[in-house]
Amino acid sequence: MIDGVANAVTNYASIIQRNYGDATVVTPYYPDADDSIYPFPVLRYPSIDVTKLVGYRAGLPLSPELMAQVEGRHIDLIHSHCPVTSTILARMLRQRLHVPLVFTYHTKFDIDIANAIHSKRLQEASIKLLVENISACDEVWTVSRGAGENLRSLGYQGDYIVMPNGVDIPADRLPDETVRAVSEGLDLPEGVPLLLFVGRMMWYKGLRIILDALKQLKGEGQDFRMVFIGKGTDGEAIRAYAEELCLGDKVFFLPPCYDREIIRAWYCRADLFLFPSLYDNAPMVVREAAASGTPSIVVRGSCAAEDITDGENGFLIEENAESMAKLLAKLCHEPERLKRVGRQAQ
To answer: What Cα–Cα distance (Å) separates residue 277 from each residue in 18, 33, 205, 225, 341?
Structure first.
């Protein structure tokens, strides 16, 4: 999976199912989803396609069939990971099942609301409803300190606990032959710095900063390769911008990968992971790269930078292409430093 929240839910459910009891995941319907791959049952409720607005499908929680399915199971705790339709459903289930409800705040939903709704008044009303929904939960978790501050800025006044997400990638590197195999057929020469991004192809992930920095790097004569893995509603525009910048010989766009071992191999193959996003509250991809021994470049002051000491277990830049290009130009000539910082990031 590419989506960080979905990965977090999968990790929670898998560990509970394996070590502590029975886990059931309730999530919106996706037409191409294969739920047979999971070690726990998945119950789907109706959804509508709003991917062009916010990048994912929105659930319609008023489903009598789903209610009947859930009520037929033994449930001790409800854990919601979306403050809108999922938490509406969770609150309805709590009322019927008489069990506690925990909510985790992963994403800066004010940005999603602003992208989906252009009326300022409707944006404010939507945020108010979102905060009321969260406030009705029995316990609230945030995935980082910055996520808690963002939640406070929306008007939430209750208590919360910072509960960072873990990752399912071991703190180790794969064998060299496995790592080399993942890039077969691509022009990724050994010894040429390989840069990586994994995630949704959305401008607000800082992808323009990456591409503009790469344009500057190429203009300075520095050889490199860049791999983007993922999809999103801005994907076509992002690929077109890369061509406009004449980066077609340096940059590769790959579709999302749902095989965790292949994703892990890409992390191991890369020299640097680039993630100049202010949108993400606790990007799991940065932690996954670190587990694989690959350091990240993130924006100073962002949530992704909370646990990073510049030059020790990662690298910090200002939120602009010039800052990234300057750092990349230096790091491309310091492979041993990259390896050392990557080991310290694990």
So the answer is: 34, 28, 5, 20, 21
